[in-house]
Structure formats: C-alpha cells, structure tokens
Design goal:
CATH class of the largest domain: Mainly Beta
Oligomer: single chain
Number of domains: 2
Strand order of the largest sheet: 1-3-2-6-5-4
CATH architecture of the largest domain: Beta Complex
CATH topology of the largest domain: RNA Polymerase Alpha Subunit, Chain A, domain 2
Strand content: 35-45%
Number of helices: 4
Shape: elongated
Order of helices and strands: EHEEHEEEEHEEEEEEH
Helix content: 10-25%
Structural class: alpha+beta
Length: about 220
C-alpha cells in the first residue's frame, strides 16, 4: 500500500482527496499517529482477498520517515453509495502477539439436519485469537457434517494452528444441532423475555402550554 502524509483536521481537503480516488485516514502508530491518504483501489483490492482485513500490509507513505507494517482497524463507508470515506490503520510490531477476532467458516451439512430434520443453531460466528501478526488466520474452519441431533461443537473442539491461541472460554457453545421444536421454543422464550415496546406519547393537549427544556430556546 502506498500513499502520502496529509494535514489532518479539515473537511475540504478530505473531500478533494475522495474526488481524486484517495481515502483520508489515520495510522495509529507505535507511540505516534500519522494522518495519511491512500488509494481507494488499493484498499478495495485488499478487502477482496480472503481475510483481507487480517493481512499485514507493508506501507510506505510519501513524507513519512519510515516504512510501516499496518492492519486495517476500521473503515467508514457511505451508507448509500458504499464509497470509502475514511480508513483507520493500526501499526503492528511483527515480533509482538496481537489479539484479533477471526471469522468461523462452517464446513458441511450436519447429518442431524440433513437426515433427521434438526435445526442448526449458531452461537458464535467468530472467535478471538492471540498470535503473532503474521500468523493470524484468514478464517477458522469448523467441520460440522458429523453433528447429529443434540450434538454440539464447543470452543474447546475448534482446531487451530499451534501458533494460534483461542481466547474464548473453552466450554462455550459454537454451534449445535437441535430438534426443530426446541429451536422454536427458544425463539418463543426470547420473544416473551424481550421488553415490551414503550407506548407512543400522547400529543400535548395545548401546544402553546408546552415549555422548552431548561436551557432551550
């Protein structure tokens, strides 16, 4: 990834950068933060890769005093146009472990679903791991084809490379195959436990009598 150091704090220059196909951003560094602009095309190429946000990116920004290794920390995207508005990058030390959420990839159709009419219930779609930045997996594969009715995959059952440590509690459920009736009952209980919606406020009888809040105009 390439780009340039920029002057932070003004909206006008940021709009001009976006019109030129650039994304304003911040590199949260090792003891210092640097305002930068990067190519939107470069960012999209990284995101298109499997596990793109997990990749360690070698970045040299024009005007910066050093080459940095960074990861994408956060992206701000326009809700209507999907245009990239801002990017936060986190500088990483390749020699120090980091903690990072990694998506789970479920493989296969459980026998309890395919042959016995069960329902798959997913409790976790990602796990928090700790490892060196270069060892962060793109995703974690969880085979579920052999799961029968009332069987579960727990966190302790999930296999990862020896260089990766899962930080979630070992006895937590990841995924289960349940009887359809049990899943329906869980849904009904959850709906019953949800707080009732607050009744709509009645309109004021005399709008002229309504007083502004303290400090209002």
């Amino acid at each position: 990834m390439s780009g340039s150091v920029r002057q932070a704090g003004r909206k006008g220059p940021c709009r001009r950068l976006r019109s030129q196909g650039l994304v304003p951003g911040i590199v949260y560094g090792q003891g210092e933060n640097v305002a930068v602009s990067v190519s939107a095309k470069d960012v999209l190429k990284i995101l298109d890769m499997k596990g793109g946000a997990h990749h360690i990116i070698a970045a040299k920004f024009e005007g910066d005093k050093k080459e940095r290794h960074v990861m994408i920390k956060q992206l701000d995207v326009h809700p209507l146009t999907d245009k990239l508005l801002h990017i936060d990058l986190k500088e990483v030390d390749l020699t120090k472990p980091v903690r990072f959420p990694v998506d789970l990839e479920f493989s296969g159709t459980p026998v309890g679903v395919k042959e016995k009419g069960g329902r798959l219930k997913v409790y976790k779609n990602r796990l928090m791991v700790e490892c060196l930045p270069a060892n962060i997996p793109d995703s974690i594969l969880v085979p579920i084809a052999n799961l029968d009715l009332n069987q579960h995959v727990m966190v302790r059952d999930v296999k990862v490379d020896d260089k990766v440590t899962i930080l979630d509690e070992a006895d937590e459920h990841v995924v289960s195959v349940l009887h359809a009736a049990a899943v329906a009952a869980e849904g009904a209980e959850a709906a019953a436990a949800a707080p009732a919606a607050a009744p709509a406020a009645a309109p004021a009888a005399d709008a002229k009598a309504a007083k502004p809040a303290k400090g209002g105009k």
